[in-house]
Amino acid sequence: MSFIVRKDFSIIQLIELALTHKRHKLRRVLKNSNQNDKRQSVHGFAKNVWRVWATLALKLKPDPFKWYTSFDRTILTAQRTSENSPIAGFRPTDSQLQEAASGLREKETVLSDGVTYYQREHHDRQASILWLVMTKDEKSWGKKNKEHSARSFGSFLNLLASTRLNLTDVSLGLLTSCEQEYRLYKSATKALGLARVTVILNKGYLEKEELLNANRKDPRIQTARRSELARLRNYLMLKALHDESHIVWLDADVFYLDEGIVQTMIAHAQRRQDVGLLTARCTYGPNFNYDKNAWAGTRPPPPELELADPTSAQAETNAQPQRLVDELVKGTKDDDLIPLTAVGATILYIRASLVLQGLSFPHQYTVGTRWTRDGYDGLETEGLCYRAKGLSGAGCSLLGGKWHVKHMIN
């Protein structure tokens, strides 16, 4: 079947109609006429018009506070098949492309603090899960080593798809300090059909020299680094959270998840109101337990700290010594939950209502804090359980048995 394009409408005018969303007028223009009019097949005409529309939409700089609609199926299809695609390794299906094309709204703006903020959502979808990941640059996904090739954002998208979650029920929040990664995250997530995508370009709050990997063993540098992570985690979490019920944090260089691990965490939280934060064992090559930030028991204060009763503090430590995950999971079953004092974030589940009640990642040592000085423990993830005390639906636990995730060897 052919459609007729009237001679008195130029291709430029037709493109303008498409760009201004005057589809009702465009349909009137594409109508049957006499045999002397110029004929084009609907496929050829639509392909040309919509390709120009998509190209212009990508180059236009719309009002940053205005919602607008755009979707470039042609470009996404080309990325899917191109060997040089920035999301090589991720292959959306035709049905995913079609579904993602409808009902999208986008906005992008530079906030008052200089942070670039982008959001795209399906206006007719309401997610129950918010998935959060932070990166510094493209190397954050995992470097090449003897056991693995280098990972990329496409590797993460494949991992997300492998969870068998209904992605229309998932919101994705990403924060990076790399402009190239920021642009990639915006474009590469269009075909996923996620309920909402939030991408944040935040350069951070510390000078680069303060976070050099060579200095990470220096306690002062480690404190500054983890404080920075806490601030960035809070920024992403508070900007990305809308009406979701469940939050899942995942380290960018975690490359393997046990099948059903996220669903299991959510199921535990839904069954038990005394469980609001959950984590799982993380391996690192041959190391059975990598995340030392998750533990149960107590840790003694530093000896130089002035305490009213140092004897009682030592007695408490002796009665409840610190026990790490590898010791805690021994003899447990997959259905077991093990109480924790502190959690890590290689994988971390948080009941979203806790954040609405005020829970956040401590950016300073919160255990033992006084008016005139910081505390001595409980920084970043390790202070979450301490901060959650007294909140409705709190409580920290570890998945027992064989549940685990795997971290890249960097």
UniProtKB/TrEMBL annotation:
Domain of life of the native organism: Eukaryota
The protein's name: Uncharacterized protein
